[in-house]
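Model: Ready when you are.
Researcher: Fold this.
Model:
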Amino acid sequence: MRLRVEYRVGPELRFLANLDMLHTIERALRRARIPYALSEGFNPHIKLSLGTVLPVGLWGEREYFDLELMADMSGEEFVKRLNPVLPSGLMVLQAVNIPPSAPSLMSVVNAASYAFKVKKLDEAVLDQLQMLMHRPELLVASRGKKKNRIKDLKPGLYKITMMTHDQFDIIKIWVSTGQPVNVRFDELIELFGTCGITAEQLVDVWRCGNFCRVEEQFYTPMEQVKLL
């Protein structure tokens, strides 16, 4: 059987690399005596598949992994057994059973949302942010494998919202993570610079979640299972 797991990576673990996160979860599964399945061969490993990589320097409100089990276990029992052995900053939020034939996380997740906490913005900057979605092009220097190339983020920007507070503002943005363009959080920071937001104004950045975008609608990987 397979479980799909939603978990939180707190700010204190923002500098944990993807491979270290994988090893941390594997050690917790062993401590919790979860009946995980192993691959075959000379070097068997836990059949655990993380979702899209959480960039180093970011924390995540809702991250995901799929796990194959050798014995039946409810999602509630899994959460109950795993959380007590996880390190501080890491918490399982929920787990659900998924069909053995369900597509992998990597094949269904095609969007993400990021939040940027910034020092209080003036009206001129807020107006520039509001106009981002109306620009014909959103050109930045690529930060991916094809560095030093100009990249147009426009096709991969889906929605921007803003929440204002007394001392700070939060910009939340939904973007594509594959086709038509893979939008990185550091490219968004550069884009915000064109609106007048400086690096000194940036207080915090985190990923709010990964999504499966289907015909303009955003579903979490947990909700996506119900569409199968």
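Researcher: Now this one.
Model:
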Amino acid sequence: MRIAVLLYPEFTALDAVGPYEVLSRIPGAEVVFTAARRGPVRTDMSSLALTADAALDEVDSADVLLVPGGPGTEAQLGDPAVLEWVRAVDATTTWTTSVCSGSLLLGAAGLLKGRRATSHWACLDQLPRFGAEPTGTERVVLDGKYATAAGVSAGIDLALSLTGRLAGDATAEAIQLVIEYDPQPPYSAGSIATASPELVAELRSNRLLLG
């Protein structure tokens, strides 16, 4: 089973690495990180890079496609080569997935028309421009073979959901235990439903912090 993860400048690290930690542990899975060209790709925080071991033109199919989000998403929305690659690989997938603002890339490629989808809470209002129906109350939204996750950490939930469908509940539970995914955050500000209105407003006005 081949899992292709798209990388591009200024993607958010956990969008890609969180799902990788889960999906790479599925028996028989092969994960390939791919970008416009081989080599290191810097994340949105610039101090970290992931290595693309394959260029886009070397990856023409995948069982699972994962598109992370991040500040760099905006630039990719206007890149015909990236959008055409997403469409081409999507034609071969069992699952086409995204984390955070990665769903905007799926939308820009024309894959979410008439479908329910989610994204980072700061980007939800952009989904309708691509014909998608935004759903902001779920961390993972499944519609056909398309699976979209909310912001950043929701990618782990996405990956566990996919693992259950690809390899069975027992495998998903085993991987969850191996990575000890048992969230017990010290704060309750993890969603706009629980964070203070003042904090939400502050972050909405601070695009640099949001990325």
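Researcher: Key takeaway?
Model: The two ends are 32 Å apart (CA to CA).
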